[in-house]
Amino acid sequence: MYKSITLGLVVSLGLLTACNKEGSMEKLKSGSEYKIVETKGNPKADTSKFVEFHLSMFNEKDSLLGSSFKMQNGKPFSMKVPAAPQKFSIEEALTLMGEGDSLQLFVPTDSIFKGFMETQRPEFLPKGTKLKFHFRMLKVTTLAEINKKHEAEIDEYAKKKNLAVTKTASGLRYIVTKPHTGELLKDGDSVAVHYTGKLLNDEPFDSSLPKGAPFELVVSETPVIAAWPEALKLTGMGGKITILVPYYLGYGDRPSGPIPAFGAMVFDMEIMKVKANAAKPATQSSNKQAAEAAVTEIK
Question: S-S: 273 plus which of 68, 119, 192, 266, CB 3.0-4.6 Å?
């Protein structure tokens, strides 16, 4: 997580300006240094919490190298506070802040590029220099609070769109918009599906329609998000179904492309072709444990 964010910020451009407020410098066990720029006196984040924060990065000359504003299209980073933060990482700063706090973290560039060929080091980060990360902690919350808000947002979407959805035990909401013919799909069936996926703001992020061909998969065998096998088995040949997917049946608590962390999704699906097959043992989704944990937390 840390190196992907750090190296991504190295090559990204942003729109923030450096903060020049001075505070007392403190040293972490790893050797990185930090100073508090502003504190609101709120409780500090701990390893049971999830956090949202904006982050910008400067070199020693205070030249802006990148920011969450650029990488995230204006959205903050979101993550669980790790139990064992990596040394020389931005993770070390998270438990030093509460909601509303600002902090500057100074990380030796030599530690970031340790293990990399020196030819991969950018010229603007020479040996012996430090990177300055500026944090603004926006939110410190618990999984229970996230889930409560998340479920409310999905239900509000269904209400706004006048969707008389059915909610399954897993948390999936669905509505059949066109009945299928024949049998329901089952594990091991080969199917071709036209689909359109969008966020709760109705912004589409993927669709098979412009590609001119449906997406082909084997139910419960082709790697897809956990919601898909369950949804497919609620319909059959010629059927259309709309599903509202909570994050724990989708991409979880980390962002994935245009899908934000804890992002709910909506899929419109139409079954175009079915080839029945003997059912095989279904592979377990990588999100199954997250789904079970989230459902338990909600209950």
Answer: 192
Name the β-bridge partners of 143: none
Number of domains, the chain: 2
Of 249, 43, 69, 75, the closest CA to residue 141 belongs to 43
Q: Are 136 and 169 found together in one domain?
A: no
pLDDT digits (tens, 9 = 90+) for 4-53: 444 444 333 333 333 334 468 999 988 899 999 999 999 999 999 999 99
Count helices and strands (H / E) in the chain: 6, 16
Report the 10 Å Cβ neighbour count for 232: 26
Residues 34 and 78 in one domain: yes
DSSP string, 150-179: HHHHHHHHHHHTT---EE-TTS-EEEEEE-
> 19 and 55 share a domain?
yes
- Identify the three-state secondary structure at position 293: helix
- Give the Cβ contact number of residue 106 at 10 Å: 17
Rounded to whole angstroms, the Cα distance separating 96 from 44 reads 6
Domain boundary among 118, 141, 164: 141
Instruction: Fill in the amino acid letter for 70.
Output: K
pLDDT tens sequence across 112-148: 888 777 778 888 889 999 999 999 999 999 999 999 9
Structure confidence at residue 120 (pLDDT): 83
Mean pLDDT, the chain, rounded, equals: 86
Structure-block tokens of residue 274: 């079915």
Question: Tell me, what CATH number does 247's domain have?
Answer: 3.10.50.40
Dihedral through CA 112, CA 114, CA 120, CA 123, nearest 10? 60
